[in-house]
UniProtKB/TrEMBL annotation:
NCBIfam families from the UniProt entry: four helix bundle protein
Lineage: Bacteria, Pseudomonadati, Pseudomonadota, Alphaproteobacteria, Caulobacterales
Pfam families the UniProt entry points to: 23S_rRNA_IVP (PF05635)
Superkingdom: Bacteria
Protein name: Four helix bundle protein
Amino acid sequence: MSVRSYRDLMVWRKGMALAAAVYRLTRQMPKHEEYRISGQMIRAVTSIPANLAVPQNLAPSP
């Protein structure tokens, strides 16, 4: 399998799946936890696939 994009990486896809699962989980948390715990969980989990995509976006085009 040829990797042409960060979206082809299994780790990026799993990171996106984890992010979706965390979003679903945090919707079930009490509202008073929304900004404290839920917010931190969402920021942390969305940084995983975002950080994987950064190196490709910085690479010069051939």
